């Protein structure tokens, strides 16, 4: 069976241009912190539709990055948040499938009434993929995180039991946790409650592997995991104490580092970054609707076009960069930029050449972001 390593990192990339920089960041993180993460390039159907790309481009990005850096360890390409309506476009390019059945979870009734329809749907999707890819030729994740209420330990135990009964060789599961996992900003919620839930889920998974014959490498997957800095030390401490693995999905954080890199690269690139923001401000409703459940933007905190026009590179970068100790950091500004990658795609004739021209500067931002703000918080003992 194709097997995902103990620790893995979902390195989402809106435009499939930063594969080398992302992989280099994980290589550097391993050298510095002594922890290996399997890289998993993930991109959802929604992102492909917004940008106008195909899953084959994600595969080419991953393969090219691996070849460029002479990387010899396992790596994966994730068909992120797929269902029966869109999975076929991912079959050839992907070897990791995140089966999203959150829409099939009921809001009331017994555990069976609430969760069994979702579990049966996961089985249908898994078997559909298996018929085309062949058993053992892909990694399976089941996602149930995009719902209103966190699953209890008893509910997660039931879910895992029934997924095992569906003969799904599950390697990661993404449950819902209490609190807000907004895109591109820190976790918002009760940290003590999150710690309790996370540890309970680790224990349930350990028990389910033994009781139901699920794969021994089954582990938790944290969706919208990018930039959830306050929970990283909690997760790191608990997975070490329990000897557990983890899969952390990061998506828009790389795109945000691209914008930061452009802002500090040269005046023309800074002007392009400003233009993307100003256009996003004028189309905020359109851009935020697809992400309404995972963003909290305060319009009163968004700088005006005139204000941004007067910013220098340092001001723009510090306002966007996720450094909560910096008085210029603006989470509403960051969240709007996070959902504005559609604007960058529309400026592709300017945007893509700018990425190529300034790849070294952008790479510095990506490396610092993934190593210092993410992996270090999980595994550094400092």
What tags apply to this protein structure?
382 residues; alpha/beta; TIM Barrel; eight-stranded parallel beta barrel; 16 helices
Task: Explain what this protein looks like in three dimensions.
The protein is an alpha/beta fold. The protein folds into two domains: 7-253, TIM Barrel, CATH 3.20.20; 254-367, no CATH class. Helix content is 52%, strand content 11%. The protein has 16 helices and eight strands. It has helices spanning 19-33, 45-51, 55-69, 111-133, 153-165, 191-212, 232-242, 252-265, 267-282, 284-288, 305-309, 313-320, 331-338, 341-346, 348-357, 359-379, and strands at 7-11, 38-44, 76-82, 96-100, 139-143, 170-174, 219-222, 246-250. An eight-stranded parallel barrel has the order 1-2-3-4-5-6-7-8, surrounded by six helices. Helix 7 crosses helix 16 and helix 8 packs across helix 16. It is globular. The model has no long low-confidence stretch (mean pLDDT 96).
- Give the CATH H-level superfamily of the largest domain: Aldolase class I
- Tell me the radius of gyration: 20 Å
CATH class of the largest domain: Alpha Beta
Helix- and strand-based class?
Answer: alpha/beta
Summarize the amount of helix as a percent range: 40-55%
Largest β-sheet summary:
8 strands, parallel, barrel
Unreliable sequence segments: none
- Tally of discrete structural domains: 2
What is the element string, with H for helices and E for strands?
A: EHEHHEEHEHEHEHEHHHHHHHHH
What does the overall shape look like?
Answer: globular
| Span of the ends, CA to CA | 37 Å
Major β-sheet strand ordering: 1-2-3-4-5-6-7-8
* Mean pLDDT over the full residue set: 96
**Based on the structure given, which CATH architecture of the largest domain is correct?**
Alpha-Beta Barrel
Strand content range? 5-15%
Number of helices: 16
Oligomeric state as shown = single chain
Tell me the CATH topology of the largest domain: TIM Barrel
The total count of strands amounts to 8
